[in-house]
Amino acid sequence: MAENNSVRYDIYTPTNPQGLDKDEIIDFLFHQLDEYGDERKDIAKCIDYALSEAEGKGGSVMVAREGDAVVGALILNNTGMSGFIPENILVYIAVHSSQRGKGVGKRLVQMAADNTTGSIALHVEPQNPARHLYEKMGFTNKYLEYRLLR
């Protein structure tokens, strides 16, 4: 995997949200996540949660850019819990198709791990090829997930 040195990485947090164009990140994630994504309004709620200074909330938004173009984005939410539930959940990550296999996704996940405390959980579909990256980075799969949707 070739590292792309022309990509710049930025981290936005509740104490440092300046310069983040939320609509740009929402559009990027909506288009790049394809079948693994959610509606724009749900992505917007996730960003708002990550950048909230309210007790029990917070997290970070990490953005990879090549020039002015977004080529990768990650949203990490704090859960406000620990022990029985991981302290953080990696909710969204996407890399532009032109940058896949160049280390952008790995760098974003590593930044998330390096810039937060506590465990990180994520959900990934079994057929998602990114699953192999997470396993290489040390994520394990201990549970099957079931949901009661209402």
TrEMBL record:
GO terms for molecular function: acyltransferase activity, transferring groups other than amino-acyl groups. Residues 7-150 form the N-acetyltransferase domain. Keywords: Acyltransferase, Transferase. This is N-acetyltransferase. It comes from Pontibacter diazotrophicus. The lineage of its organism: Bacteria, Pseudomonadati, Bacteroidota, Cytophagia, Cytophagales.
